[in-house]
UniProtKB/TrEMBL annotation:
Coiled coil: none
InterPro entries: CBS_dom (IPR000644), CBS_dom_sf (IPR046342), Cl-channel_core (IPR014743), ClC (IPR001807), ClC-type_chloride_channel (IPR050368)
Membrane topology reported for the UniProt record: Multi-pass membrane protein
Source species: Triticum urartu (Red wild einkorn)
Predominant localisation class: membrane
Keywords in alphabetical order: CBS domain, Chloride, Chloride channel, Ion channel, Ion transport, Membrane, Transmembrane, Transmembrane helix, Transport
Domain CBS as annotated: residue spans: 408-469, 481-545
Cellular component, GO annotation: chloride channel complex; chloroplast thylakoid membrane
SUPFAM superfamilies registered for this protein in UniProt: CBS-domain pair, Clc chloride channel
Name of this chain's protein: Chloride channel protein
Record's subcellular location: Membrane
GO molecular function, one term: chloride channel activity
Transmembrane segments: 54-79, 99-116, 136-159, 171-191, 211-230, 237-258, 285-309, 316-333
Length: 558
């Protein structure tokens, strides 16, 4: 019953949050509501795996398509935020595409019937003067990336401060939203534009409504800072809403301020610099591109951002500036997110294992920390905008108490670097196992090779016309040509983390090593966990919980 009512409670909470003007947006809750309804249908029909993933993706597409009246952007949002992160099988993506398209189209049609066919905000006519402007758009992408990082960091710091406040003062969770609303209301006494008015405040920024006086660049810069603070406070104090609308507002303010500064610098009779071949477009053009670049930097959906603005403007000329600015903003925001985690360990990911000595010297622990850091970055993004992680919730409530040790297999094939390739393949054939572990004499893990790795090695040897003797071809030769997989997990690691590591690196199995302290080796190999292990653990635990729940009900009845 809680699962049934959750979407409606989410809608009611979001309606109160946004109806009272708090600095969040409706698109995030819309996506979560659509996904929750999709999960409910999946549970009713008993669908699992790819079918349920397709339903969740369709619900997400419907949420974005109805929120912005943009069906194409809704389709790509489902692909970027649900299908790509959650599916390691390419067939799941192709099988889900028709359902996602139909859902986005139906949601757009229903939205047009109920709310009209106008876009979410009034789109000014896009103005593109000359290809010489493209460097200015690239620089705008850099600024939008910096603004995206500021919003993400400010939200994280504010959430940490509010959590400490609640622990120190004993502030009840139910009182926190009211306190957050009070602070945002006080900010709005000076800057009323930061409140949620639908997208009317975005129209004011873009100067797209008649009889609207434009804001100066100085005021726009102030609004950027105050909007970031207000949005962070709303999220930290537990108010319900999404980050899409605030990102678009902040992006519009950034682009408009940047555009006005560039026109003042390069055009007009009082321009600071006269560049004869440079004709700067109107600030509204930079405002539109800034909206997409900031949305991509904050929510990590670059394709959705590009297609959303292209679909709303219906102007092909905007595509090239959009791609440049969005690409730079996404790259800057993502690199900053990963650079602070892992304590400088990320450089080891780029090391090439072209020789056996290099393969030995790359510490598996470092790669393992890197993988965990990428999972932590995903968790950070989910805290910022929970609608970007609608499918991961499916496994968390089932696997949150399971560890790798409870689901791993301890029977495996291990070989050394000096083992002949033919012998390794024979062992895989006898044991019907599609991979082999590479270990040292003391069982320290060096890496993992799959059947596909051996096939790739054969293709490389054939293409380079290197025909070594079959008996002389060793596992070390394969590792010298094909990069061995060196990521691993530990027994006490949550099974959810192990699955995310496999998803992020495109693996179907990952070695399990002991909790080692020595940094010179990769740990003692004790087993492995694969997708079959995770599926069995999930189903067994679900069945166990069902029977436990049934037994408890019977005891209460008796």
């Amino acid at each position: 019953m809680k699962g049934v009512f959750r979407p409606f409670l989410k809608a009611a909470a979001a309606s109160f949050t946004l109806g009272t003007g708090n600095s969040l947006g409706p698109e995030g809750p819309s996506v979560e509501i659509g996904s929750a309804i999709a999960k409910g249908f999946g549970n009713v029909f008993g669908w699992e795996g790819g079918k349920k993933l397709s339903l969740v993706a369709a619900g997400s597409a419907a949420g974005i398509a109805s929120g912005f009246n943009a069906a194409v952007a809704g389709c790509f949002f489902a692909v970027e935020s649900v299908l790509w992160p959650s599916s390691g099988d390419s067939s799941s993506l192709s099988n889900s595409t028709p359902m996602v398209i139909l859902s986005a189209v139906i949601a757009s049609v229903v939205s047009e019937i109920g709310l009209g066919s106008d876009p979410a905000f009034t789109v000014p006519e896009y103005d593109f003067r000359s290809p010489t402007e493209l460097p200015l758009y690239l620089l705008l992408g850099v600024f939008c990336g910096a603004v995206s990082i500021t919003l993400s960091r400010c939200t994280a710091v504010t959430m940490d401060m509010v959590e400490r406040l609640q622990k120190t003062t004993g502030l009840p969770m139910a009182v926190s939203p009211a306190l957050g609303g009070l602070i945002v209301g006080l900010l709005a006494l000076v800057y009323p534009e930061v409140l949620y008015w639908g997208f009317e405040n975005v129209d004011i920024l873009l100067e797209s409504r008649p009889f609207t006086s434009g804001l100066s660049a100085a005021v726009l810069v102030q609004l950027i800072g105050v909007k970031i603070l207000a949005t962070s406070l709303c999220r930290a104090f537990g108010l319900v809403g999404g980050y899409y609308a605030p990102s678009l507002f902040i992006g519009a303010a950034t682009g408009m301020a940047y555009g006005k500064f560039m026109r003042f610098t390069f055009t007009g009779s009082e321009a600071l610099f006269h560049v004869p071949f440079l004709d700067v477009a109107s600030p509204q053009a930079y405002g539109l591109v800034g909206m997409a670049a900031t949305l991509a930097g904050v929510c990590k959906v670059p394709l959705t951002s590009v297609l959303l603005l292209f679909e709303l403007t219906q102007d092909y000329r905007i595509v090239l500036p959009l791609l440049g600015a969005v690409g730079l903003s996404s790259w800057i925001a993502s690199s900053q997110r990963f650079s602070t985690s892992g304590k400088g360990k990320l450089d080891s990911l780029e090391e090439k294992t072209s020789t056996i000595e290099e393969a030995k010297n790359v510490p598996t622990q470092t790669q393992q920390l890197t993988s965990v850091d990428s999972v932590d970055a995903t968790a950070e993004l989910c805290k910022l905008e929970s609608s970007l992680c609608v499918y991961d919730v499916k496994d968390d409530n089932v696997l949150e108490n399971l560890t790798v040790a409870e689901s791993m297999k301890t029977r495996y094939i291990s070989v050394s670097l000096k083992t002949p390739v033919v012998e390794a393949l024979n062992l895989m054939l006898v044991e019907k196992q599609p991979f082999v572990m590479i270990t040292e004499s003391n069982k320290s893990l060096l890496g993992l090779l799959t059947v596909k790795d051996f096939q790739d090695f054969c293709k490389t040897v054939k293409s380079t016309r290197m025909q070594p003797e079959v008996d002389e071809c060793l596992v070390s030769h394969v590792c010298g040509v094909v990069r061995c997989k060196i990521w691993s997990v530990t027994p006490h690691m949550p099974l959810i983390t192990a699955e995310k590591i496999m998803d992020s690196h495109g693996m179907d199995q990952v070695p399990v090593v002991s909790e080692h302290v020595n940094h010179q080796d990769g740990g003692i190999l004790i087993g492995f966990v694969d997708r079959e292990c995770i599926t069995i653990a999930r189903r067994a635990l679900a069945a166990k919980e069902f029977f436990s729940f049934t037994s408890e009900i019977r005891r209460e009845e008796s």
